[in-house]
Specification:
It is built from six helices and seven strands. It is α+β, with helices and mostly antiparallel strands. β3 and β4 form a beta hairpin.
Length: 170
């Protein structure tokens, strides 16, 4: 079993099952809470070009020819990338795949010149919030407040280069 990262587009047919899984997951957790059109409205809000270099990226973690995880980022401001669509196949959770996707996105964002990450997750995704806390993200909300009333949970992280980022920059 060999995993590899593929840097591609949201339009890549390889991404379709992953994005459909993400859509199903969001709809099952939130329904029309955020938008009467459901998760499809959010997933289609930003055009594919927003997640393309040099200002963005879309990454798939592929195993045996199948996307098992992925994520994206787009420009938020001159120094900040906004991470979106971080997801892993529901049948393969608890294997560290999301951490690997997150690390790949952070490394790529650094190499593209970003120094800060901004992202949000929903209040019905405690495993995502836990991942962000565990990987050094800072909550831009009070974790003791009523998260359901807040709905969207924003996080940030200041990036520092890893050894491989410095080597790649030479």
């Amino acid at each position: 079993m060999s995993d590899r990262f593929v840097y591609t587009s949201t339009l890549d047919p390889l991404a379709r099952p992953l994005l459909e899984g993400l859509l199903h997951e969001y709809d099952s957790r939130y329904g029309s809470l955020f938008n009467p059109g459901g998760a499809a409205v959010e997933l289609n809000r930003d055009p594919p070009e927003a997640f393309a270099p040099p200002r963005g990226a879309f990454v798939l973690l592929v195993r045996d020819g199948r996307a098992i995880g992925g994520g994206a980022f787009m420009r938020y401001d001159d120094e900040t990338a906004e991470f979106k669509r971080i997801w892993t196949d529901a049948a393969l959770r608890r294997q560290g795949l999301a951490r690997r996707v997150l690390a790949a996105l952070e490394s790529l964002a650094w190499r593209q010149g970003y120094r800060r990450i901004y992202l949000t997750t929903g209040f019905r995704q405690p495993e995502a919030a836990g991942l962000y806390f565990d990987t050094g993200y800072t909550a831009l909300f009070d974790p003791n407040e009523d998260l359901q009333a807040r709905r969207s949970l924003p996080f940030e992280k200041l990036l520092v280069p890893r050894a491989e980022d410095l080597i790649a920059a030479e």
